[in-house]
Description:
Number of helices: 4
Shape: elongated
Largest sheet: 5 strands, mixed
Number of domains: 2
Oligomer: single chain
Order of helices and strands: HEEHEEEEHEH
Helix content: 25-40%
CATH topology of the largest domain: Beta Polymerase, domain 2
CATH superfamily of the largest domain: NADH:ubiquinone oxidoreductase Nqo5 subunit
Amino acid sequence: MVARFKKRYGSGIQEAVTYMxxxxxxxDSSIAHEVLQLLAEEEEFDYCVDLTAVHYPxxxxxFDIIYILYSFPRNERIRVKAQFGDGEPVPTATNIWPAANWxxxxxxxxxxIKFEGHPDPRRILLPDGWTGYPLRKxxxxxxxxxxxxxxxxxxxxxx
Length: 159
């Protein structure tokens, strides 16, 4: 499978390794959605188990988006990772796996990552009025908590 992908995309497949017995692909952001679609359609990865992100604020492309996929017919998992810049739209995977819906909403809520074409791009865990994205490494949790608690609960934080 990896050889076919490397032949098709060349340097777009930046890394292909096995970790703990599971394949792991690092792909260029420009082909990420297409690779995900091929994994679903041609390689039978029919379930998006998880989708998450990691924030590296000092990098040019600050976010790693990580997809963990499962194939019921093959009884196999694969991880796919791509780097995206802050504010760079990430194509939604909801058109491939409907289960990506809430996972992408969580990434938006916690990291501020916008998924282009997402059917319901709104917060899922935090209140609508929340400012900022708590899983970014540059997020000031103490300041935000104090402001939100005072504005919405009418008490000082820590009471």
